[in-house]
Amino acid sequence: ARMTAQTTLMITATIRQDHVPALQDLLARMNCAHGLANPRNTLLPFRQFQRLHMARFTILQAHTNEDIRAHGIEPHDWQPTLCLIGDIDGDRNTFLAELVIRAGSGLRRIFSHCEGFNKDSTDLLQWLHNHSHRANANYVNWRGRTVEQIHEEAKLVAVLSAEVRRMVAEDNGLNNRQIWRRLKRFVQAGICARRLRLSPPVPAPAATVAGTLLHLAAIPILFLFISPALLLVSPFYFYKLRALERDDPENTLRPETGHLQSIAAQEDIAVTNHFNVFGQVKPGLLRLFTIRIGLLLLDYSARHIYTRGHLTRIQTIHFARWVLLDNNRRVYFASNYDGSAESYMDDFINKVAWGLNLVFSNGVGYPRTSWLLKGGAENEENYKKTLRRNQLPSESWYTAYPGLTAVDLARNHRVRQVLESDNPGDDELEQWLALL
Questions:
Q1: Which of 203-207, 255-259, 335-339 has the lowest mean pLDDT?
Q2: pLDDT digits over 95-122, tens only?
Q3: What is the three-class DSSP state of 101?
Q4: From the centroid of its chain, how far is CA 415?
Q5: CA 314, CA 302: separation in Å to the nearest integer?
Q6: Residue 252 has what pLDDT?
Q7: CA-to-CA distance for 108 and 106, rounded, in angstroms?
Q8: Which pLDDT band, with edges at 50, 70 and 90, does 2 fall under?
Q9: What is the model's pLDDT at position 123?
Q10: Of 56, 116, 212, 329, which has the fewest Cβ atoms less than 10 A away?
């Protein structure tokens, strides 16, 4: 059976005129370092939410709004918008209710800076539902791995590593299988004494499993059904696309120094970082069609193919989402990743540039592509300049497991798997002990 599903939360609200500085000051009070939330802050005490993996507040500001003039289009007004996103285990609606119960007064103070919200009289839960957005595409590093499981397995590995060191120091001449058996008994004793806990997986609700299976089958069936029409229009599509690609204006501007400094100030504080990019979609129905199909395929592959620690060849991403906003005029990308921003960008360029091009080549200022998949991000300098110009800081960012990378989580889970197995092979045991 499929295990507990992860779902996404996204609340957006237009900020009242001239309230951005006051709201930034308020959100900064949640932090213990620049952009890094104190888990026990009083406005939104993230630590109290046992099903919350990662979350952030971001103010979406259209700093590059004028760039679309290069396409002969007048910029569309965009008011600064507060965005709360989170990645959670289980049902979104239940989590929203818990959010209101545990952090209602703090959220009221925050959202009182937004249009249409009255701190004293607005029905907060209904308001959150009314201002929710679903992602067009969503990636989860390891579907079904809960916050509870991550904490339990991290503690298991820490305890086992200490016990292995103690056993090696005693030098009893035990072979790998004997060590494994002793550790198995040691963990069982710890569980009985309630020093350790290894919760069994919780099966996903039947409706969730059915929805996943339906989605798995529906998208290929849909494409099969419309394939004759796609084949018919594809020559015209690619002819028009190639014509647009040849004439697409490119961004040649460098990010302003002050903007880069505000971004850099909250990078590499911890081993896991957060990334926000907010840009405009190129004008025209063809570009809108292309980005929507690209996001549909991305979401499908992330939901059914890349579910066990890899987004193609990239292993450093915990969560990521792509959302179309402002009546499909803008796209917001948010991710949580391990390592530096430079290594993160290089990872994408070197391993999956074609995937970046499939979606982001439809964004204003992106380096020119050839036949949608080639070029683009391969132009490293222009790609990074454009990305940085459209990047935004997080006002406050939270992770439930600071210091643990995606690779750590995979290792911890592997340790548990071999420990709980019935009869692992000799090579498997040797590799297992090396993990400890």
A1: 203-207
A2: 999 999 999 999 999 999 999 999 999 9
A3: helix
A4: 25
A5: 12
A6: 85
A7: 5
A8: low
A9: 97
A10: 116
The pLDDT value given to residue 42? 94
Residues for the chain: how many in total?
Answer: 436
| Strand 330-338 with 317-325, pairing | antiparallel
User: In angstroms, rounded to a whole number, what is the distance separating the alpha carbons of residues 276 and 330?
Assistant: 13
Burial of 19 (0-12, 13-18, 19+ CB in 10 A): middle
pLDDT tens digits along 313-356? 899 999 999 999 999 999 999 999 999 999 999 999 999 898 89
What is the spatial distance between Cα 98 and Cα 92, in angstroms, rounded to a whole number? 10
With contact defined as beta carbons under 8 Å apart, do 152 and 197 qualify? yes
Report the C-alpha gap between 76 and 55 in whole angstroms: 29
Q: What is the pLDDT of residues 338-348, one digit of tens each?
A: 999 999 999 99
Please report, for residues 6, 10, 100, 196, 336, the alpha-carbon distance to residue 95 in angstroms, rounded to integers and kept in the order given: 12, 12, 9, 27, 20
Q: What does residue 41 show for φ and ψ, rounded to 5 degrees?
A: -60, 155
Q: What angle do CA 391, 393, 398 make, to 5 degrees?
A: 130
The arithmetic mean of pLDDT across residues 210-214, rounded, is: 92
Provide the mean pLDDT of the chain.
94
CA–CA–CA angle 57, 61, 66 (5° rounding)? 160
CA distance 265 to 173: 52
Residue 1's pLDDT is 44
The residues, any chain, with a CB within 8 Å of residue 409's CB and separated by 6 or more, are 141, 142, 145, 150, 153, 401
Separate counts of helices (H) and strands (E) for the chain: 12, 12
> Rounded to an integer, what distance in angstroms lies between the CA atom of residue 328 and that of residue 137?
14
Report d(CA 287, CA 170) in Å as an integer: 67
CA distances from 264 to 31, 320, 341, 389, 421 (A): 16, 20, 9, 13, 45
pLDDT at residue 169 in the model: 82
CA–CA gap between residue 409 and residue 16 (Å, rounded): 41
Token pair for 21 = 């500085």
